[in-house]
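[Structure tokenization] protein backbone as discrete codes

[Encoding] learned vocabulary of local backbone shapes

[Begin record] amino acids and matching fold tokens:

___
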Amino acid sequence: MICQSSPVGPLSVHATDEAVTDLFWGAGGNLTDGPLHRQLCDEMAAYFVGDLQHFQTPVAPRGTVFQQKFYAALCAIPYGETRTYGDLAKELGVSAQAIGQACGANPIAILIPCHRVLAADGLGGYSGMGGVEAKVTLLRLEEAAGLLI
């Protein structure tokens, strides 16, 4: 378990020896000790108290060429800022629906910040435990909530 209690609930991750591959709400991850575990625990704790704006923990999400470009685009959204599904769709040359589906399939939420993607007229969805409330919590933590709430 990476975070027993975080503002969005307990979190765990799967990882290889070198990088995080999946983040889960609740128990179930295989990363329970070692240098990568310590690095991620330290970074998550700092992020959740507002002292970290960019994760350095290596991530290795599986996915198609499009998904890899999408993950890179998400990681390029600065802390405390948001983009719309339409913004990313235009940037990546796909439909806003494709962006919404890719957000929902993001295997490493928070570290790959899909919570920073909003609908043109509201919050949009969030596939993490707690749904939109978790998204709002993360946006408030990053002081981005004033943009939408």
